[in-house]
Amino acid sequence: MNSLFDKVNQHRKQHLPFVLYRKPNSKTVIGLFQENDHLYFSKDFHEKGFVFAPFRNGDVIVFPLELSSVKFAAPHLASASDEDFAGIQPDSHDKEHFMALVQKGIDAIDQGLFSKVVLSRSEAIALPEFDLEAVFERMLQQYSTAFCYCWFHPKVGMWMGATPEKLLYAKENKFNTMALAGTQPFQGNDVVFWQNKEREEQEFVTHFISENLKDITSEMTFSSPYTTRAGNLLHLKTDIEGVLNTHSNLKKVIDILHPTPAVCGLPKLVAQSFILENEGYDREYYTGFLGELNHDFNTNEMASDFYVNLRCMKLEKDKAHLYMGCGITKNSHPEAEWEETVNKSKTMKRIL
Ligand SMILES: C=C(O[C@@H]1C=C(C(=O)O)C=C[C@H]1O)C(=O)O
Question: What residue ranges are annotated as transmembrane (predicted)?
């Protein structure tokens, strides 16, 4: 990692953009270093490079391959600890505020406005000392099955995260994605019981993907939902794969999938306006997506590999802003949803 971090430190000093990332279950860290400080935006996902997209429909930033240098590292990491972690306690004000927001979401569902909405909050924590290399290494070590990244642009800021959720992998006309939703803490048990509320919440996502990709695919297969672990949390997941038909292209698939009901809600547009009007803060890149665009940096093949930006934080000089949310349905309880966000906040707190 030393020479990779030499390059990172050089880039940070010169205020130049870079991204470091490691794919789920991979041992290789890839670094992409843009050699000027322009902000480039993707035009219809035709470029090759690395994209970083916000939650709201808007400008998708790309680090273009032809303007960047690439470096690899294969760090030796100690094995992760499974210790329970209490973390810094959030403010009681935050709790009241978030529970009132969840209640408002439940009321809107009862009134028939939508059937699911994903509501979130952000929490700032002081970081008097921050060692990027140490934090990044702890993230790799703790979350071997996540997509781990650190992204920086001098005109946007620094973001870091360890997300369990793939948005889309596409190569030629083949693609795969997932429906991930439903959360409970991992308690070391082999047998896991899921309530109907979580099953329903996850089914919404699978159903949405199946219905909405129908017109641009010629084949699609779905696994049964199964339990998957992300750090100290468990989720329900369905794997989805298929073949895109000739009416399709990357932009069309992304426009359908992003933002999925796993991070926004159903129907998408009403849920999204409810979020924008009521959450009371700007999600920016949280619940956006990021990843390789039209280029697999390991194999140099043409493929795209995007992840949803979850379990992430925005880093400022002496502060980190953590982001976490949860799916609200008619059977949600504000207190339980609050606890879920507290558990999700530990993903980043644990490595700081
Ligand atoms: C919104 C987040 O996670 C999403 C919401 C989940 C849920 O509601 O159970 C589970 C996984 C993610 O799709 C987050 O981590 O902030």
Answer: none
